[in-house]
Amino acid sequence: MNIIDDLKARGSFGFGAAQIGNLYRPIDDETAHRAVEAAWDQGIRYFDTAPHYGLGLSETRLGAVLATKPRDEFIVSTKIGRLLRPNPKPQGQDAEGFAVADDLTRVRDYSETGVLTSIEESLERTGLDRIDIVYIHDPDDHWEQASTQAVKALNRLKDEGVVRAWGIGMNQAEMLHRFVTETNPDLIMLAGRYTLLEQGAQKELLPACLANNVGVVNVGVFNSGLLSKPRPAADATYNYEPAPAQLIDRANQLADLAEKHGVTLPEAALAFPYQHPAVCSVVIGMRTAEQVTSNVQMHTQAQNVPAELWEEAHELGYITSHR
């Protein structure tokens, strides 16, 4: 089974492991491990991590649990592009959003050697014998090296069976479109560019993915918080910054529409990406066992969003139709 079909079959809803890398605030190992165990117990079989998340802490915590599970029963992805190296000038706390000590620092490297080293170190941190999917992580300022050297290395590793599939994970649609049309990825991880509030990826990127048989793993479906509550808070964030008033107004209009059709705004936001045939999985971040249970319930409810909601949202100009 190819990776797209496998994700559709058992990984259509994935566990994003940035939060168990102490994103924004710390949690202890036990809380992180309980979250992963809860995800497993409730049927989640796709787990996404990265060296960037907590300077390796996410990989270590995720691997501690997954290493106890039958290896063929789950899909795991990590990322390359940031090597973790001793920090020559530690200030005490990581400066990139994770509540961890900054004894390590991130070194951008999309070279062939960098790819091989990164994957080897990820295997050590996770304790796993192989990685299913490797994403080139945030190569926004590194197109030349990433599109040549990283792609070459990942294709070789795929041919050798070291990795099963590779892709690119980014917050922008334009460069992802270049990767899809100029290289040969299996997947892309698209963050925040195909949501109830923003469908910029629909015009060129998603059709290109369909044309080139590239699967889309959609993340950031709540646009960093604006769509994560039944009613957006006045201090809600959008793309990790304070949300503009007009977007808060739009989110409230979408919430009205969702309620009219018997669902909540987060349920509609989670359901929306699945309407596009290019999307094979949606991954959302999870921090605690309780949050996992809540998210699984929300995902179940999201499957009940009626088609009439999308039809009315399109008529009102809230979303663009892919059909």
TrEMBL record:
PANTHER family linked: GH17980P-RELATED (PTHR42686)
One annotated GO molecular function: oxidoreductase activity
Highest taxon above the source species: Bacteria
All residue ranges annotated as the NADP-dependent oxidoreductase domain in the record: 14-298
GO CC annotation: cytosol
Protein name listed in UniProt: Aldo/keto reductase
Coiled coil, from the record: none
InterPro entries noted in UniProt: AKR, NAD(P)_OxRdtase_dom_sf, NADP_OxRdtase_dom
